[in-house]
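The methods section describes the discrete structure representation at length, but only in general terms. Since the whole study asks how a given chain folds, the encoding of that fold should be made plain. An entry of this sort, consisting of the sequence and the corresponding backbone structure tokens, reads as follows:

. . .
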Amino acid sequence: MSVEQQSPTVREVLRSLDVFAGPLPRFSPQETPDSPQELFIEWLTEAVAAGVREPHAMTLSTAGQDGMPSARVLLLKDVGPAGWSFAAHAASPKGRDLAAAPAAALTFYWPQQARQVRLRGAVATGSPELSAQDFLARPLGSRAEALAGMQSRPLDDPRSVSAATEEALARLGREPDLVVPEWTLYTLDPHGVEFWQGDKQRKHTRLAYLRSAEGWDKQLLWP
């Protein structure tokens, strides 16, 4: 028998992986706050305390003008009464998607706790002042990348990245308060937020917050 025949298939490898390993946190929907923002901050704080890496990382899903979905991982910038905020270059694919169809979905997943949060809603652009504040708070290398403004474009020579970065860093050195005008702070105002707590026996707990005229209604969902 050849080595290839002895090797496990991808399906077999996937089936062998452990799921929901270790102790999982308790979640009681009956003890949840009135707003999804409050519960999200509780879960995020617990993820930070548990040592989850990049707990503020989230998947942003948008729809292109061709109707096809696109997803990528970004970092959450803030959460408050107005919604969940993130930033991007307006000329990037995600920026163009949001300009054409200002709605999106956000997904957070904290595997050590078997917790997931899903949001859908309209996306609004922040003021130039708030967008500028966000840009200037970014690390220098991140500002240089945004200043180059080439994200997702075809790359013929990898050396071009270093050249463009060095040029951008030199300009930022001369103009430390320079702000890329296309840099935009976005805020997703959800019409629904789902909190998902995994269970080893697959009896997952799912709690949905649904926007109503009075504020938020809470609804349990089947696993």
Q: What stands out?
A: The beta strands are 57-63, 69-75, 78-80, 83-89, 103-110, 115-125, 183-197, 205-212, 215-221.
